[in-house]
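Notebook B, p. 112. Complex prediction, attempt 2.
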Amino acid sequence: MSAFWAIVRRDITLAMRRKAEVITAVFFFVVVAALFPLGIGPDMATLRLTAPGILWIGALLACMLSMGRLFAADYADGTLEQMALSPNGLSVLVAAKILAHWCLSGLPLVLLAPILGLQFDLPTNALWVLTLSLLVGTPLLSLIGAIGAALTLGVRGGDVLLSLLVLPLYVPALIFGAGAVQAEMSGLGASAHLSVLTAMALVAAVFSPWASAAALRLALES
Amino acid sequence: MIWHSFSDFWAMGGYAVYVWGSFGMTAALVWAEIAWAKQARRKLVQNIQAERASVALNATDWR
Amino acid sequence: MFSKSLFYFSSPQRFYPVAGKSWPWFAVMASALAVWGLWLGIFVAPTDFQQGEGYRIIFVHVPVSWMSMIIYLAMAFWALMGLTFNTRLSGMMCSALAPTGAICAFLSLWTGALWGKPMWGTWWVWDARLTSELILFFLYLGYIALTNAIDDPRRADKAGGILALVGALNVPVIYFSVKWWNTLHQGASVSVTNGSSMDRTMLDAMLIMAVAFWLYAIAMTLYRVRNIILARERHTQWVADLPEMKAMSTGAIT
Amino acid sequence: MLTVSQLSCRRGDRRLFSHVSFTLASGQWLHLEGDNGVGKTSLMRLICGLGVPEEGDITWRNEQASATDDDEPQTLRNNLIYLGHQLAIKEDLTPLENLQTHAAISGTPLSTSNAMAALAQMGLRGREQLPVKVLSQGQKRRSALARLIVSEVPLWVLDEPFVALDGTAQEVLRTVINSHLSHGGMVLLTSHQAVSLDGQGRVYRLSA
């Protein structure tokens, strides 16, 4: 277990010594969310209706943006092969990297979302549900994205390929995440959506590190 | 046989664009897929033959 | 006995002639059934009293939609075989299936849109089936793009296999999530085959067409897997000894 | 004891080497030699489980080695340290942090004082807390080599360990390897220059 936390700490330390990359993804989220009203028009009723979808798609793209770098640096400098040789098992270390990725790219979005939701005139209860749905949903995005990042590691045009592979797999997360906020606003209650989202995140938490580790071994063997 | 005339058949009861659009695209893609696979095979066989021929040629030249 | 013969033919060298002998039979049967099914579907089946002649689109739409799903399941099956038993043929079968699957998914979308326009008055409806079909099409494209981008065939096969399995797990989740989303939004949930009272001839024609597409997919896959085997094994002696390698080369020189 | 028997490796269409066999027992070292591109690195990666051999076996203490995620302490993967062309050093971390992270990954217990001592032995005294990016190429390699000093595994697989090191550093490395051999360790290494080490050593010439 100490190896797990060592990797989490190392990845966060590395990111803190190069803050620009983390800040870029967060800034991207803010800019995208600010551009949508300019494209749709300032009508508050429309904005309130579209806000959950816009914020969720923004989060999804921001997560995508940083996903390509998840394993790239460790692959390039040989740390990944050392991880593959670790007696702790590669999948445990991959899980640590996914957790660190979420702390750096998912968590800031969760914290920012209620502020951006205010721009869209979301009611208070909807803001809470939005934050909660992102809190459960962004780990799911990191987990699914990790499989794509591992599969496309070191492949020609990997970044574009990554989005082609991963975005379709994000559909359920998007539907239930944005749906939770819409259900709350329409008075149906969000608990059903949030439980499905949680269940999907838990399944992905079991399956994704294992599948990613298998894909990473392929990248190392070729 | 349910059609009374040829033009009747083509008109498809007013749905000609939709029905023939569907059947036509299906036929076109099936044809394209077959042509593509056949061409791929022809190219591949030629490539392999050329490769083998060049290996044989170089082997005699260098001796 | 079964598993023994299974592994016997899982060698590309042994499978190559088997595939070569069998694909023409599947192709002939597929063409014969397609002619029969089209004859029944276009010339014999009566006009639908609700949808007029427009319903005839189902004779391609339903078979290609079924095939797009069956082919993905077949890919997931071969992916599982490849990852558990480590047989080389499995990955080749997987990548041989994908293009036909992608074409079927595209045709399903195309014919679905052409069917939807006269029936619902719109080219596209965000219902569970059409949306899942669209995602399925993206999954096929992703698989093809990934396997083509990786140069090392071993990694391409295995990475494609992982992707196919992850996708296969996701398709039902996507279907049910879109379905739920749709009911919440009170959208149209119309099925192409309203199912209630289909004429016997219509049903026959549709099933015959479905079998024809199935056989077509098998023939195409066998044909394409031969190409893949040749490309992978190009430097082996058995490929050099193939009659087709010699027949054409003497022809080319003289 | 490490036993490699009838190992063959293929890279794409090209066969690198075939039917490589050797054994390596406690206290022994083996110098892999061969022209560029003959597959020395590939052979080392196969032994580490970072590749799949076309045919042949690798056994460790008479057990088949496997690359899968099994946690049994007996497996070869848990008994070796691999130092490849890529140093697995993070430019933004200090040598001390790099060493500590690596110890955590490889499951080696390591106290800060031991880590400092190892870095000092590699001649990095006073540079333990500087980011690696300000160090020279040779110093980077030395901070990677400090892993050997703190490691507790019997088999060392070293790909060109002497490259880019000055005379002093080479001498230190030789001392470290000799001490490992005298404690019953095994060393498999490649080098473009002749290697003189204590203990029982051999040269294995790899050819296509």
